[in-house]
Design brief:
Blueprint (H helix, E strand, L loop, with lengths): L2 E12 L38 H13 L11 E4 L9 E4 L7 E9 L2 E14 L3 E4 L4 E4 L6 E7 L6 H17 L12 E11 L9 E6 L2 H20 L7 E6 L4 E7 L9 E2 L10 H8 L6 H11 L4 H9 L1 H11 L5 H19 L12 H10 L5 H14 L3 H8 L7 H14 L1 H8 L4 H13 L6 H13 L1
The structure holds zinc ion.
Length: 474
Amino acid sequence: MEYEAVIGLETHVQLKTKSKMWCGCANEFGAPPNTNVCPVCLGMPGVLPVANDEGLRLTVLTGYLLHCTIPRFAKFDRKNYFYPDAPKNYQVTQYDKPSTANGYLDFEFNGGMSRVRITRAHLEEDVGKNFHFDRNSGVDFNRAGVPLLEIVSEPDITSPDMAYAYLNALKDVLVYGGVSDCDMEKGMVRCDVNISVRPKGQKELGAKIEIKNMNSFSGARKALEYEIPRQIEVLTKGGKLSQETRRWDDVANITETMRSKEQAHDYRYFPEPDLMPFEPTEAWLEEVSKRVVELPLARKQRFMVDYELPAPDAETFVNDVPLGDYFEKAVASAKNRKAIANWVINNLRAKITETQIPLAEVKVKPNDIPELVALVDNGKISSKIAQDVFAEMFTSGDSPAQIVEKKGLAQVSDTGAIEKLCDEAIAANPKSVEDYKAGKVAALNSLKGQVMKLSKGKANPALVGEILEKKLKA
Ligand SMILES: [Zn+2]
């Protein structure tokens, strides 16, 4: 029997706010343990939370970026459980009335486009972090109360590779949208995977198994690559799968049972009495919607269509937004778009890497690039000289025309001058001349090289070839 996998993902993302969600403590990674804490995020008795407006804005902004509807009424709930990393013994989250619902994410996968529906993206708070030492354990509450978005997908994902592509696309959207830095190293993104298998063609879903708390996308993919065949094997051997939570062991590369799956009622959800329901006004929503930016996929497609760039070039400008914006300014009124893209990607970017000068401080102005390209295209300078001109543009900030003028770099297309240089080269290289006359065509290139050298690279190479040939055949 053939089986198919049904996968849904719950992705937790820390929002990029300056302070925590319900108090004024800094939302910052790497501070000494328990220094970004206060009575509110430590769950002391008698304190009251105050919602961070930017946290709410970033939640709704995410909803817009993921094409969700934004309900005009949302509320907060307490998810009750006892664990050392939860100082309040509950986590504030949104249970039945989330701030965003029913969206989708489109992304490139397997050479085509895929869509995964988004069930909801709701706001909750992060918890502390446990540390285990040789003889004892400790908890760092710096992370407790940091705004956390849980983005829940529909079970539209069918393979580990598709899950991986979805996660990367989601991350791109969130980073692009300014919602989260999504720094995996700093634990800003974690995901839970829901996975079941069923015989191909069967409607109802198999037993849902959840793999918790993976902190890398490749880990999620590996866990799925392990878990799908495991489940299929159990079923093939006549066994039964039951709903449970498993843990991914990324050293042994296996999943193992953590606990049989708890039900929602185990958490005794109830409305958070200390926080007002969230009812955004139209004016507030309008303000948030203004922060919606062009998404990476749309940008890539636009660069490919509007500027006729190949996919890898477009991707470069998607991954480096300031460089892409620079290119757009450079290309605005120019004809040879591909050449401009090449200068920006190959030369400008290389210089920036080499010198570590940030793009914002680079002296080459965007409209200098089309000017340089035009000098080459019009035969004013050779492409080799153009490299030197560019290097000079980068150091001095002068325009290409100024540099060519000042340094006398204009290509020599004056036949008389080139003829003189050709005569010189012929006179100085009797061996090459002999070789050429004996039928060794390559000897012409050697002579051509000599002429170019004599002209300091300024002679028009096509003209040099023509004149040399004429003289040698004479
Ligand atoms: Zn605090």
